[in-house]
Amino acid sequence: MKTTKIIIILLAFVSSISFTSCVEDGNFEVPNSLGAEENAALTKLQAEATAGAVTEISIANLKGLLVNGQVTQITSDIYVKGYVTSSDQTGNFYKEFFIQDAPSNPTAAIKVVTEMVDSYNKFNIGREVYIKLKDLYIGESRTGDGVTAIGGGEFSAGRLGTLTTKQTDSHVLRAANSEEIVPIEVKFSEINDSHVGLFVKVQDAQFPTSLVGKTYVDANDQFDTQRLLESCDGFGYTNFILETSAFAEFKFSVLPAGGGSISAVVSKTFDGSDLVLALNKPTDVSMDGTRCTPLNISDFTVLIEEDFDTSVDNTVFNFPGWTNVAQAGTALWSEQVFSGNGYAEFSAFRTNNAVNIAWLISPGINMDTQTNEFLNFQVAQHHLDSPLNTLEVFVSTDFNGSNATTATWTPITYNKPVMSDAWYAFKDGGLIDISSYSGTLHVGFKFTGSGTDTTLDGAYMIDDFRVLAK
Fold it and tell me: Does residue 70 fall inside a structural domain?
């Protein structure tokens, strides 16, 4: 009986020590020193790489192994190295983390899905990580979301399963060093699928005044809340989505009312329909400065302008100086009028063409008689169901006035419509610097879609085309 009492007292004493040490302040630094077993596993991998028994593959090339809609087992002796960009410390990420290919100026990132929770204790932001890929799998953890991930098997048809704890321990090896992750500075309009998993920073960002006083998460949302971000871009605002988990520790923190910057990881919505930003921690939002305001067009000289208000509703587009040509399929851009406003539109709906590629090309612009030229236009979409249904914008200095396919076209970045945008709602494409070009410049709008694939039969609209000088 005395022995039992002693054991109980000892257990209570040990428990009190454990409890006190766990809850002391909730903050600690992740140690850089590794256990002997971790050191041995990484040393062995590095020795095998030196001997040529295992080969390193880049994150970009690894993502190239993805077969859309399939989960693919890796059977080769290869490994990938990266640096952790996301953290589940605040609860905004769950059973996943991203790694990018360099601490600064990265070019690619990939997701790792694992059963491990509180992975930040081991795979903290900036941690250098080596993943032995043989017998692991590549796929999408959310079928069709377009985010390439490393996992432990096939959860269901076409859906990637998580790494088990054992697979994580034996395949995902951390080095002793943690590097500073330097965010890539981008505009909202520049973020695309290639940025998924990368840590980015956007300047001149703010929340719309309509959101001032609201919290990151709406109390009525069960899983995630999307809050609109905006940034001054040209004569209007460029918008982007900030998505926050209902399980994030900071979910009821109040959104800042000022302007400044936001640093976050680029991710996607659950179904992959839209790109979003996801915070590692709320202190990565620095918006205590002055809010930005769009530019004033009266400060610029208009070189060429077309508002399309003389359009004849639902006719083939035919404006002087403009070129309207079908590269694939038979459909052309059309003139449309709604509530007295004319605009150019291409819709693949009911074209009955398996592929529609159509160009709308502006008149030539003399770039040699002034400096500091900028391009600006309004753009909208309706019935857009897939990011593969695209509107690309290019410029050319050798377009011959008729054949779009023989010209040299340089892509330009603009504020693209996305599926979450309201249908028919025009937004500013941004103020696009084209001052580096000389000679005669043409701007080409290239639509790609399908009249037989219902996911690609959406429409794009162009209005208020302007070239300006300042």
Answer: yes
